[in-house]
Amino acid sequence: MEFTAETMEKLVELLQPPEPDVLQGDDLKESNVEITSTRDKIPEAADDSKNVPRNIEEFEEQQDKEAEEMSLVGGGVMNRKTPVYTMNYQQSVTAEDVFLQIGHKTPSSASCEILVVRIKMPGDKKENVDLAVDCTSVTVNSSQYHLKLPLPHEINPDTSKAEWDTPKETLVLGLKLSREFDFVNF
């Protein structure tokens, strides 16, 4: 086969993709919508000179004030306080695990079965506490406190336990962890 200039031009025409159907400005319908862009415009800086601390003491005061304001209101629910809480992991160990070290458990949190949450609620009673537990969060409501706590791991609410420690005025939750690879660890 002979490649002449004419055959090459025809080959180029065949290999080019077809031109898409493009609507021109005259083909578009009219609308009353104005299209604008703020991409190149720089927003004006707000005057935050009153909120900027001038030294470390003012900065620390501002941080303390913000932390106190956040702790006074429990998520904006009727000005109730957010209670102080702690989270600890707990695991069941046997003599095999401790003395003989032939068990499959490790000291890491991967081998823990229970997430223990202690919520201190001074001034409240067991009767005033409303507790809601689902797979990913715990919600505690009382006349003085409100806490919506997302959990670090999914739990099984059906096998979890809750107790009220009267002398310490603390709600103790034993939440059974439900993790995907528990069959490997237990």
Summarize the entry for a quick read:
The protein has 4 helices and 7 strands.
Structure description:
With 186 residues, the protein is of the alpha+beta class. It has a domain at 77-179: Immunoglobulin-like (Sandwich). 20% of the residues lie in helices and 25% in strands. The strands form two sheets. It has a four-stranded antiparallel sheet, with no helix packed on it. A three-stranded antiparallel sheet has the order 3-4-5, with no helix packed on it. A hairpin with a 4-residue loop joins strand 4 (137-141) and strand 5 (146-150). The longest helix is centred in the middle third of the chain and has 17 residues, at 56-72. The radius of gyration is 32 Å and the shape is extended. Residues 72-76 have low confidence and may be disordered.
Residues in helix, %: 10-25%
What's the architecture of the domain at 77-179 in CATH terms? Sandwich
Q: Name the structural class.
A: alpha+beta
Total number of helical segments? Answer: 4
Chain-averaged pLDDT: 78
Looking at how many chains there are and whether they match, the oligomeric state comes to single chain
Q: In angstroms, what separates the terminal alpha carbons?
A: 74 Å
User: Which CATH C-level class of the domain at 77-179 is it?
Assistant: Mainly Beta
Radius of gyration: 32 Å
> Could you spell the SSE succession in H and E letters?
HHEHEEEEEEH
Low-confidence stretches: 72-76
Largest sheet report = 4 strands, antiparallel
What amount of the residues lies in strands?
25-35%
**Count the strands?**
7
Sheet with the most strands: spatial strand order: 1-2-7-6
Principal-axis shape equals extended
Question: What is CATH's topology name of the domain at 77-179?
Answer: Immunoglobulin-like
